[in-house]
Amino acid sequence: MTSSLPQLPEVALLQNDDSMLSRRFGKEITNYYAGGSINRISFLRADTSFLQQASKSPRARYFALNNLGPVVEDQGTLALFSLENLKSLIGSDPFKLTEDESIKNFDSTKKTPLIVFLGLHEGPNSDEFTTTSHGTVKGEPYFAVDVTPRGTYSEAASAFLKSQEEKGFTVQRNARAMTLHAEAVRG
Length: 187
Fold this sequence. Notes:
The protein is of the alpha+beta class and 187 residues long. The protein has one domain (12-186). Helix content is 22%, strand content 21%. Strands 1, 2, 3, 4, 5, 6, 7 and 8 form an 8-stranded mixed sheet that branches. The model has no long low-confidence stretch (mean pLDDT 85).
């Protein structure tokens, strides 16, 4: 009898894991949005100056999520986008306003895509960014963008998703799918 469950991705670091936990509960399941090689540096999420630099970096990469389902190239490959690819949705300078300015200018009748800074991948192709209070940091910036068509950006989001579909990309709708590689950001 063969199992119809999808094969779990192998995590090289855990292949030879023989811990008490793995003996009791089996090999670790990788959460694709945690435990990877991205340094979250969450203390910089409120540093608008840093976010502005990072978001406009030529090395910045964006995940696109539609109803929390990632846009994927195929079952195992997360699609990564540049700021140029998403400009129609998030503009050319998505972090131009400080947090205080954003709060002051907030208008609940105008929907805008949510953009979340995920962190920096610290590798050989790193950029340097000056922070307000923490000196210089190096890495390739990664962001998540909600491209779910809604409100005032519904048309732009629908057009973006249609253009990705025309390239052969799809939205992974199964929240429990275990087909993406654990180090999807290394692309």
